[in-house]
Design brief:
The complex is a heterodimer of chains A (about 140) and B (about 180). Chain A is about 65% helix and about 0% strand. Chain A contains 6 helices and no strands. With about 180 residues, chain B is α/β, with parallel strands linked by helices. In chain B, β4, α4 and β5 form a beta-alpha-beta unit. Classes of the chains: A mainly alpha (about 140), B alpha/beta (about 180). Chains A and B meet through α3 and α4 of A and α5 of B.
Chain lengths: ~140, ~180
């Protein structure tokens, strides 16, 4: 019985961990604003710990950036204005999904182009292979 | 024959891309301020909260703005060179004491020497964010019109100074 209780409590604690998040400040009272905040911080790179978003990072720079974003949102700034604030200071690298511009064109198009090239090569190889006579079985049989 | 040439060309292309790409430090980010006016800032000075360190302080001279903190290992590392640079009188150095504690920062300057004309105190890191600082130490070269000419991340040393700062400084009117 104790064991069941203990493991239930533990399970609840583990389940609750993501909800606590890293923010020490209270959530926005307006759930819409809070939702926008959560979306934005998941889109912003922690510049200090580059493979984390500022939503996931404990670095103090991430905490500072979250604080600034909270301030901007509570001042009534739009999402676009918040992103612009970050890009002005840190460049487009701060955003996980930078806008499609001349500079980021390669970044956005390269995966598609590579996929097409790969598919082209694959099709050619497969065509050639099916055109070859099948003599493997005979070779294996002897 | 052609396909082998193609393969070799593709391989050579990759070698070129990687030999350039892999030598870059991915933790070093370009500053969007290069060539543009420095951000607007107005900080109390470290030594005297009544005095201000702001854009106007930098006007009319080529200067360095060095972002430092007592918790920053790289800052300790570059401190000797900053002292040397300050003594040479080559360029005025201003500090932004970033996300630090005033008492610790003042003790640091007493203990290791103070290379700065003055330091602004940015306890909550807001000015740091405005400057696009992502890790101390960072050093900005700012010209007389308040434009940022260069940003170096990481500790300064004589080699970096000669290679990256000195040419820009000479070009912007500071005599050798």
């Amino acid at each position: 019985m104790m064991r069941v209780l203990a493991s239930t409590v533990l399970a609840c604690l583990i389940a609750a961990a993501p909800a606590v998040a890293i923010d020490t400040e209270p959530a926005f009272e307006d759930p819409g604003l809070q939702a926008r905040y959560e979306t934005i911080i998941a889109e912003v790179r922690c510049l200090k710990c580059q493979n984390q978003s500022i939503k996931d990072s404990n670095a103090f720079l991430a905490a500072d950036l979250r604080r600034e974003i909270r301030r901007l949102l509570s001042e009534g700034k739009t999402d676009a204005e918040v992103y612009a604030f970050l890009v002005d200071r840190y460049g487009e690298f701060a955003l996980y999904r930078p806008p499609l511009t001349g500079k980021t064109l390669v970044l956005w198009l390269a995966p598609g182009i590579l996929l097409l090239v790969g598919a082209g090569v694959l099709i050619r190889v497969l065509r050639r292979r099916t055109a070859l006579p099948i003599d493997d079985e005979e070779a294996a049989g002897t | 024959m052609l396909r082998y040439l193609l393969l070799i060309a593709a391989f050579a292309g990759l070698v070129v891309v990687f030999s350039i790409g892999l030598q870059r430090d991915p933790s070093e980010l370009p500053s969007p301020y290069i060539g543009n006016p420095a951000p607007v800032f107005d900080l109390p000075t470290l030594a005297d909260p009544e005095r201000r360190f702001a854009n106007a302080t930098l006007a009319g001279q080529v200067s360095l703005v060095n972002v430092w903190a007592t918790w920053c290992v790289g800052c300790r590392q570059e401190h000797g060179f900053l002292m040397e640079l300050a003594r040479s009188g080559r360029i005025p150095i201003y500090g932004i004491n970033w996300r630090d504690n005033r008492a610790d920062a003042l003790r640091w300057l007493t203990q290791y020497g103070d290379p700065y004309v003055m330091s602004g105190f940015d306890g909550d890191g807001r000015a740091g964010i405005d400057w696009g600082v992502y890790g101390a130490p960072e050093t900005f070269l700012v010209n007389g019109e308040g434009r940022v000419l260069y940003r170096h991340t990481g500790p300064l040393d004589p080699a970096v100074w000669q290679a990256d700062f000195e040419p820009l400084l000479a070009a912007s009117g500071g005599e050798q």
